[in-house]
Amino acid sequence: MADSYDSLVPRSPFRVWRAFTWSLKGLRATWMLESSFRLEVYLFVLLAPLALWLGADGVERSILVGSMVLVLVVEVLNSAVEAVVDRWGAEHHELAGRAKDMGSAAVFLADLNVLACWGLILGPRYF
């Protein structure tokens, strides 16, 4: 009963602040523990200004930058799945391996999405 009541109570600034700090804690943990996330952040820092410069209008810029943000989001989720699977146990299990492979596939698909967005938007213009 308390859960349904909590969903009706507006968030106080304190609750929003706590959620924000938890989010930062998760980003920090991902940064510290995941080299692939760090690489993707470096690529984002390098390519986002290029996307803003090469995009012809706001829609193109948002697609070029947004596709890269999606990679970061998926990488954080993949890291979370891997952490839970690793926490559950060190022994090999088919479902644990499948979960990790699916998380990796999600990152791969997000990477392909970046290539498709950049290629479809910038390809006809420059090639």
TrEMBL record:
Cofactor(s) listed: Mg(2+)
InterPro entries assigned: DAGK, DAGK_prok, DAGK_sf
Membrane topology term: Multi-pass membrane protein
Domain of life where this protein originates: Bacteria
Reaction(s) catalysed by this chain's protein: a 1,2-diacyl-sn-glycerol + ATP = a 1,2-diacyl-sn-glycero-3-phosphate + ADP + H(+)
Membrane-spanning residues: 37-56, 62-81, 102-121
GO molecular function (one): kinase activity
EC code(s) of this entry: 2.7.1.107
Keyword Glycoprotein (UniProt): no
Alphabetically ordered keywords of this record: ATP-binding, Cell inner membrane, Cell membrane, Kinase, Lipid biosynthesis, Lipid metabolism, Magnesium, Membrane, Metal-binding, Nucleotide-binding, Phospholipid biosynthesis, Phospholipid metabolism, Transferase, Transmembrane, Transmembrane helix
CDD domains per the UniProt record, alphabetical: DAGK_IM
Subcellular location: Cell inner membrane
Function description: Catalyzes the ATP-dependent phosphorylation of sn-l,2-diacylglycerol (DAG) to phosphatidic acid. Involved in the recycling of diacylglycerol produced as a by-product during membrane-derived oligosaccharide (MDO) biosynthesis.
PANTHER family for the chain: DIACYLGLYCEROL KINASE
Family affiliation: Belongs to the bacterial diacylglycerol kinase family.
Name by which UniProt lists this protein: Diacylglycerol kinase
UniProt organism field: Arenimonas soli
